[in-house]
Write a sequence for this structure.
């Protein structure tokens, strides 16, 4: 079963297994985790809370990080892809924005929604790579990738 390490990012600091790294140490830990894991799943708390993703940090690790920064607008998604990120999770984004994102972004886009069925519907409609579920969600969808976040274990696992 495919799974990746989850890290949390806040104000340029990295949190893994209840330990926090700053500045150069944060960069080193991402490098180390990048060697151990093909991809790291980054939950960007600044993106979630303040719509201010840690873009400068992502520029240093293009291709190694799958970013979950709760982008709200098309421009936010474009900013992530411009930094070199090639996998992004979009949560509860408006349909009008999803259509534009599909038109202008080439990377792997995953959808998360409060209603897992709605996520599957949007992923199919816009031909996105797949969906991301919270721990308490479940869904059957054989034609798209389905990933589930396990926060206590700090892992994201591919279910299908």
């Amino acid at each position: 079963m495919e799974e990746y390490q989850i890290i949390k990012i806040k104000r340029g600091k990295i949190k893994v297994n209840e330990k926090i790294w700053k500045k150069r140490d944060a960069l080193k830990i991402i490098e180390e985790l990048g060697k151990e894991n093909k991809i790291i799943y980054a939950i960007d708390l600044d993106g979630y809370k303040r719509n201010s993703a840690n873009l400068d940090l992502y520029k240093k690790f293009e291709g190694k990080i799958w970013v979950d920064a709760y982008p709200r607008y098309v421009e936010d998604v474009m900013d992530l892809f411009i930094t070199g990120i090639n996998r992004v999770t979009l949560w509860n984004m408006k349909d009008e924005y999803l259509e534009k994102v599909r038109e202008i972004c080439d990377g792997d886009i995953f959808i998360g929604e409060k209603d897992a069925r709605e996520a599957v519907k949007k992923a199919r409609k816009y031909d996105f790579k797949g969906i991301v579920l919270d721990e308490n969600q479940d869904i059957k969808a054989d034609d798209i990738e389905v990933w589930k976040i396990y926060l206590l274990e700090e892992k994201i696992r591919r279910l299908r």
